[in-house]
Amino acid sequence: MKLKAAVVAALVLLSPTLAMASPNCTTEAQDKWMSEDAMKAKVAELGYTIKTFQVSGNCYEIYGFTKDEKRAEVYFNPVTGDVVEAEIDG
C-alpha cells in the first residue's frame, strides 16, 4: 500500500512537467483569427522557419527554427500575430 501511495504521489508531482498546457493567447472567436496562410507569412517575416504549424488551444503554435538556426517552439496570438510565449533552445 505504501508503494502505491508513493507512485501516486510521484505522478502528481511530475504531472505539471509532463503535460505543459498551451498559454492563453486570445479570447476571440476563431472567425476573428488570421488565416493560417497569413499567420505563416507573419511567422516567416519574424524570421522563423516552420517545421510544424498547428492550432494549440486558442493559439497558433509552431515548431521550427529561428533565423540563427536554434530550435524553437513558439505560441502566437492568432488575431494579432504577436508572440505570446517562446522556448528557444540555446
Structure description:
The structure is a single chain. The protein has 90 residues and is an alpha+beta fold. It has a single domain (23-88), classed as Nuclear Transport Factor 2, Chain: A (Roll), CATH 3.10.450. It has 2 helices and 4 strands. It has helices at 2-18, 36-45; strands spanning 49-56, 59-65, 71-76, 83-88. A 4-stranded antiparallel sheet has the order 1-2-3-4, with helices on one face. It is flat. 18% of the residues are buried. Residues 1-21 form the signal peptide. Residues 5-86 form the PepSY domain. Keywords: Signal.
Q: How does the SSE layout of this entry go?
A:
Elements: H1 2-18, H2 36-45, E1 49-56, E2 59-65, E3 71-76, E4 83-88
Antiparallel strand pairs: 1-2, 2-3, 3-4
Task: Describe, in short, the structure shown.
With 90 residues, the chain is α+β, with helices and mostly antiparallel strands.
